[in-house]
Amino acid sequence: MFSPEEYELLDFGRGRRLERFGPIVLDRPCPAVERLPLERPELWTEAHARYDRTNGPKGQWVLLRPELPERWTIRHGPVQLELKRTEFGQVGLFPEHATHWDWIAQQAEAERRRTGQPMKLLHLFAYTGGGTLAAAAAGAEVVHVDAAANMTAWARRNAELSGLADRPIRWIVEDVRKYCKRALRRGEQFHAVLLDPPSYGHGAHGEVWRLARDLAGLLELCAALTVEDRRWILLTAHTPGFGPKRLRGLMARSFGDPGPERLTAGRLLLLTRTGRALPSGVFVRWES
């Protein structure tokens, strides 16, 4: 998890969430908490900027304080992440994933101790590279795949900031399904797969991704790419209708069901200082 000085969920309710990323406090939409009250309304005056929806997925930032930088950085262990406000209301980080980055680093270190060889990780929908860099810092070899060239450039910048630019990371800008099929034809194999698919998206050449339609097929590809020496598969998602039970069922069909201790599923949560929990997605993890 992030240390409190690097990231903190301050409050949420009335369809909004208030978070501090390093020194910067942001007020952003959160439809899931539309009917919940605020717990600490006095904190909301601390926001440096507020994001409001306008048309479709895009919106606008309203600057509330003059000292807001265009870019800034926060740290998670050995990984330094550059943040900036985007037109979609994101900042280049989903903080609920940090707990899994810690687990991934532990797995990479354990693999090297056990075998003397690096863990080979396939990271799909890899975004700005938090999971990639956590694994690479712990000694893994990573193939980082994302269809967005700008996000991959952002991830490479994070690698430079973290002092990890020389680690064995292959940066691939491509539709994840096309990459997986090509890797399978070449006979590539991985020990583990990390994937965080969106509900809807486009590939590097306009390919359409719909989680409800395409996830099962992608998991079958991941199974084929890890069949010889599979260690683990970790899937996170933020799609309505795909709760822990449903995602666990999809994983079991593709990778087998090793039992509740090795095929776990649950909610991604962010906690305020007072212990109030904000649901922030779903995870399912398969372990050999």
Could you outline the blueprint of secondary structure elements for this entry?
Layout: E1 7-13, E2 16-21, E3 24-29, E4 49-53, E5 59-63, E6 71-76, E7 79-84, H1 98-115, E8 120-124, H2 130-137, E9 141-146, H3 149-161, E10 169-173, H4 176-185, E11 192-195, E12 200-202, E13 208-210, H5 211-226, E14 232-237, H6 244-255, E15 263-271, E16 277-287
Helix pairs in contact: 1-2, 4-5, 5-6
What tags apply to this protein structure?
alpha/beta; 27% helix; Immunoglobulin-like; 16 strands; Rossmann fold; 6 helices; 7-stranded mixed β-sheet; 288 residues; 5-stranded mixed β-sheet
From the N-terminal CA to the C-terminal CA, the straight-line distance is 24 Å
CATH evolutionary superfamily of the largest domain: Vaccinia Virus protein VP39
Task: Strand order, main sheet: write it out.
Answer: 10-9-8-11-14-16-15
Oligomeric form: single chain
How much helicity do the residues have? 25-40%
What coarse outline follows from CA principal-axis ratios?
globular
Total count of helical runs of at least 4 residues: 6
Write down how many β-strands occur, each being a DSSP E stretch of 2 or more residues.
16
Number of domains: 2
Describe this structure in words.
The chain has 288 residues and is an alpha/beta fold. The protein has two domains: 7-70, Golgi alpha-mannosidase II (Immunoglobulin-like), CATH 2.60.40.1180; 95-287, Vaccinia Virus protein VP39 (Rossmann fold, 3-Layer(aba) Sandwich), CATH 3.40.50. It is 27% helix and 32% strand. The chain has six helices and 16 strands. It has helices spanning 98-115, 130-137, 149-161, 176-185, 211-226, 244-255; strands spanning 7-13, 16-21, 24-29, 49-53, 59-63, 71-76, 79-84, 120-124, 141-146, 169-173, 192-195, 200-202, 208-210, 232-237, 263-271, 277-287. The two termini are 24 Å apart. The mean pLDDT is 96.
